[in-house]
């Protein structure tokens, strides 16, 4: 068991965090790695830092390119990847030293196509701010079960990171160029090329919560793209597995609530009313579906309040 594994790190304007990220990869207990650092036209010293790493570790390949965004950087790396497996790490995040070994062992032990671990949502001061799932439980899923969990977003989410994939999962699949919410548009397609998914309850990926990113959560019309991607994802999954329609509707409901959380009563009233209407259209399913979960049901009940009140309650 010594397959080559490709690690993809897209890099843009993260000079402050890059050393910690790359160090966490080059020090992995699993050594047979192809590490692709994509300098996506970064305006700071990231390109120089990448070249310095390449000079001391022959497993590292650096790609310098004009800025094209996260999707483009990942796609360039996928096109170049030589590994039997591939994993994606955001350049301001970092991973435990056994991250790759753990995910690889899960795939090999259970003959899976994709393995997933849990994560820490961590501040720059090192404080963990999510409920950590770390008791070592393992769950093996066929494709239908894996897609259910992808839609449900409780064991794992649509994020590209914290997962190891057979490279074939990305055959003829790429991230949408120049778009946000690129993971929602892409990862379910990689799942649909798999037969078996294995999830391990070990928090080995550290997702950095950056104060400077808070402003990115404010509403803008381009964030409505998340709804389009979610609708397409749910439609394609339900076409294949009609029995997943209820959890698919819950996933759409989550997307509507996520947008509403970003909005204020002062935002464009037409957009606000449209999103509210879509959320309310899924309310009955959420309230009567036994597996919807208490959080979704509470949000569904909040939608019975007047608009001014419910926006504040949802927030």
Please, could you describe this protein's structure?
The chain has 315 residues and is an alpha/beta fold. It has 2 domains: 5-214, Alpha-Beta Complex (Spore Coat Polysaccharide Biosynthesis Protein SpsA, Chain A), CATH 3.90.550; 218-314, no CATH class. It has helices spanning 15-26, 46-56, 70-80, 99-110, 143-152, 182-191, 225-240, 245-262, 269-281, 283-288, 294-302, 307-314; strands at residues 5-11, 33-40, 60-65, 85-88, 94-95, 114-123, 138-142, 163-166, 196-209. Strands 1, 2, 3, 4, 5, 6, 7, 8 and 9 form a 9-stranded mixed beta sheet that branches. Strand 2 (33-40), helix 2 (46-56) and strand 3 (60-65) form a beta-alpha-beta unit. Helix 6 runs parallel beside helix 7 (225-240), helix 7 (225-240) packs antiparallel against helix 8 (245-262) and helix 8 runs antiparallel to helix 9. It is globular, with a radius of gyration of 20 Å. The mean pLDDT is 94.
Question: Top keywords for this entry?
Answer:
315 residues, alpha/beta, Spore Coat Polysaccharide Biosynthesis Protein SpsA, Chain A, 2 domains, 12 helices, 43% helix, 19% strand
């Amino acid at each position: 068991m010594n397959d080559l594994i490709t690690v993809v790190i897209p890099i843009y304007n993260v000079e402050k965090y890059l050393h910690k990220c790359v160090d966490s990869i080059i020090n992995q207990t699993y050594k047979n790695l192809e590490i692709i650092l994509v300098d996506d036209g970064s305006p700071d010293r990231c390109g120089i830092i990448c070249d310095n790493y390449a000079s001391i570790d022959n497993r590292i390949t650096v790609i310098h390119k004009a800025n094209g965004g996260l999707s483009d950087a990942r796609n360039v790396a996928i096109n170049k990847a030589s590994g039997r497996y591939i994993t994606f790490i955001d350049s301001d995040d970092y991973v435990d030293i056994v991250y790759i070994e753990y995910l690889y062992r899960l795939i090999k032990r259970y003959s899976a196509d994709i393995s997933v671990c849990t994560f820490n949502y961590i501040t720059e001061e090192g404080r963990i701010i999510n409920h950590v799932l770390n008791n070592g439980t393992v769950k093996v899923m066929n494709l239908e079960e894996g897609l259910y969990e992808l839609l449900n977003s409780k064991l794992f989410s649509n994020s590209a990171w914290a997962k190891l994939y057979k490279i074939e999962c990305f055959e003829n699949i790429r991230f949408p160029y120049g778009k946000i919410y690129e993971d929602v548009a892409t990862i379910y397609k990689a799942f649909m090329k798999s037969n078996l998914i294995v999830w391990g309850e070990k928090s080995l990926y550290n997702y950095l919560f950056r104060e400077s990113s808070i402003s990115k959560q404010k509403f803008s019309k381009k964030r409505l793209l998340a709804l389009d991607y979610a609708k397409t994802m749910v439609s394609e999954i339900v076409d294949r597995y009609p029995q997943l329609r209820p959890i698919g509707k819950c996933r759409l409901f989550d997307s509507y609530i996520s947008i509403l959380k970003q909005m204020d009563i002062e935002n464009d009233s037409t957009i606000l009313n449209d999103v509210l209407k879509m959320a309310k259209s899924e309310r009955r399913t959420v309230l009567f579906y036994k597996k919807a979960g208490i959080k979704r049901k509470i949000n569904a009940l909040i939608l019975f309040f007047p608009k001014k009140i419910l926006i504040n309650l949802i927030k």
